[in-house]
Every structure is written in structure tokens, then in C-alpha cells.
Amino acid sequence: MPHEIKGLNEECGIFGVFDANDANHLTYFGLHALQHRGQEGAGIVTTDGEQFYQHRDTGLLSQVFAKEGTLDGLHGRSAIGHVRYSTSGNGSLANIQPFLFRFHDGNIALAHNGNLTNARTLRRQLEDEGAVFQSNSDTEILIHLIRKKRDMPFIDALKASLNEVHGGFAFLMLRKDSMIAALDPNGFRPMVVGRMPSGAYVIASESCALDTVGAELVRDVLPGEIIIIDRDGMHIDHFTTDTQLAIDSMEFIYFARPDSNIHGINVHTTRKKMGRMLAKEQPVDADIVVGVPNSSLSAASGYAEAAGLPYEMGLIKNQYVARTFIAPSQTQRDLGVRMKLSAVRGVVAGKRVAVIDDSIVRGTTSRRIVKLLRDAGAAEVHMRIASPAFRFPCFYGIDFSTRAELLAANYDLEGMRQTIGADSLGFLSKSSLIKAIGLPDAGDAPNGGLTVAYFDGQYPTPLYDYEAGYLASLHKQQKMMGDAWNE
User: Taking the model in full, what pTM does it have?
Assistant: First the structure.
């Protein structure tokens, strides 16, 4: 499902290239491959080694650069770009990245994927010290922290500043003579380095963007690392060695493109494994298996194979309906689902249907899917979810930060089944999710090097500014739910 209908939204995608012909066009195509990570706004900043050039606006990438000459007006051999969905700051033009900061001692462009959990506190401190913010995005905080340290060399100031911000962050910066990437100590968000046949380096949120521009994957950016690309090549540094891998499991479940590889693991292959394990854990007497387009199709094919059931195209996504962006009301979400999805009556009529989806957040999509299939004549509709139930908020760059909006935080399994109207409902276990992903470089990191806090409430970092509100909402929900979901 498109993210604006599904109810889950990643903050953004970033892409950069250093010292390449057609840096502007390469960045455009790289961002196009990452459009699934954000549809609210897009921008590109380039440099020719002296001057910086910028264009950004709200809308899809193709809309932002639709006017003839806009992209060609971005000169230079180095560029960074950004596609955005806002989890911090509203969708106004002032918040569209990359940000370009012009200083007397050198300009810098900055793009960010993630969410800073101590942004509110830092911003208040900086404002009290005289800082003036041009946006209400948490991204801008890093530049103010760096500028406070003007007596330090830039990289030293950057390292010190990165140790002041907390949460999930993947930063990409462009200076006139270098491109710099930095990843948080837990590596919540994916970020990869690639190299063009010309020798130019590329940095992107996902490896699928490297494939699009013809770059070869060099390596994943690791937690706590700073990658510096300049005319002398690639240099690997660290702003901290106090790291522990905890990549967001939702990258594998939902966000990343199926053709991307994250820490050596192919996303499509992983989703098929989730589907196979789901079939073993949550079997169902059904005639056919149907996947919810598009992010659930890999898991559905795995489920069908393991269950020995026909895999049918019982749901169709309309590829040509204009995007509605983030539907703010329940009515608009319902209408959006109806516009985007159709049930194939000739496939599902009279059949017991096992529907495979990757997640349930608010329940809007699941309820509509069940109704679509019943209206098309399905005899039974059984929902199987290729991830555990979402019971806890995300604070690292996904757009649900309260328990009130999560269906599984407010109902037990039977209540959820009744709410969506399915004949049965089952979820993949947390242990099977971790096993299916199987990160090879996790070492002894908890949960196989994954963040699974949305399912068990065990966050890998302190929540800082979110702590008080989260604990209050958790207490309220626990009183409401009692022991219904306690494990």
C-alpha cells in the first residue's frame, strides 16, 4: 500500500554524489529510486567547488523539478538530495531539505533521515543562547551546535556535536571540497556507500539507489561512523565507539524496497522468510493466499509456498490514481483505500481467503481490505500479519508516537479481529521476525541487532524529551487494557 494510505510513514531518503559528471541528474535519479521513503517534498543542492546551487519544493520529485531548466540550473560535480516525509516539523517549504547554510567561512548543505529524541531540549537551550532557527525541523539543530564550536576544526566540531544529539539519525553534508555522512550509534536507519565506474563516490539511504545510477555497493555505513569523501578518496572515522547495532526492523518489514540490501541481507528474501515462518506459526484452512500490494507481496508468496496453497492476485492496486499524500482524517483514509485498492471478484468469490499483510497500525487499511473482499464474494477472510503486533510508539523516525493510535495497544487479539471484521487474525512472533532477518554482523547485540521496541516496549536508547509523555500514555493504556496483552 502507498504509505499515505497505510498509516506508516518513513521520514525521508537521502542521496549524494561527490566529484561526478552530471551530479545533478545522478542525484535526481537516485532520489527517484528513494521516492517511497518520502512524498511530501524534495530538494537538491549542488556545488562547483566555489558556489552552491539549491532547488527545493513541496510535492513529489517529478513535480519539484518539472519546470524545464530547473535541474540543469544546479551546476557542479557534487550534490546531495533529499525526499521528505515530515515526522519532525511541518510540511512547509522552510522544512524541505537539504538545508543550505551560507557562512562567511564556508557554506554547508545538510540532509537528515531520522528523528532526534532530545531535539526539544537542545532547541530551547540554543534559542536561550541566541540561536535563530529558520525552520521547525530538528535537522537544523546540528548546524547550530557545530557553529557554537568555531574555535575547533570542522570535523572535531562535528564529532562533538554528534555526541550531543540523540535518537535515530543519518546525516549527509556537502561542503565545497567534501561530502560527509554520519550515522547514529545504533544505526537505526540504513545508509550505504557506493562507487561509480568513474571512481566517484555515492552515499544513499538504500542500495537500490546505487543500482539506479550504476554504482557498485562498497559498504554499509556502520553505527557511530563518519564517512568523509574528498578528492583524496574515502576516509572512515568515528564520533563514538560506544555503539550497538539496532537497525529498525521496519526497514525489512515495510519501508525498504524489495531490491535493496541492508547489512548484506536482501529485503525481498527476508520478507519471503517472514511469510514462510508466518505460515508455520499461524496456519489457516484457506483456498487461496492473497498479498496486499505492494510491500506484502514477498511475504505472501513465502506464506503460499510454505502452506502449499495457490498464490492469487486477489487485490489490485490502482497505479494511476493521483497521490493523496498524508490523509489527515479517518474519512479520507477510508476513501483513499477505496481509491487505491480493488478486489478481483473472479478470483476471490466463494473462496476462503488468507490475506497476508506486513503490519497493522491503526486498522483502517485492514478493515477496508476485509470489507472489499467480502463485498467481492469471499466466503471467509483470514488476516495474517508478517510482523508482530504494533503495541508501542516509534521515536526514531516513523510517524506514530502515541499508543492511542495503535490498534494493538487498545484491543486484545479478539478485539482486533472484531474491529477489522476478519474471520481470524494472526501475527508473526518476535522471535521468528528476528530469525527471518538474521543480520550477519549483529554479534551479541540484543534482538539480533534489530530495534523491535514497537512490539515489546524495550527501547534500545533513552527517550529523553519523549519519556514523560510516553510513560503517562503507557500507564493510561495499561489501566485500560489490564493484562490483556501482557506476555
Answer: 0.92
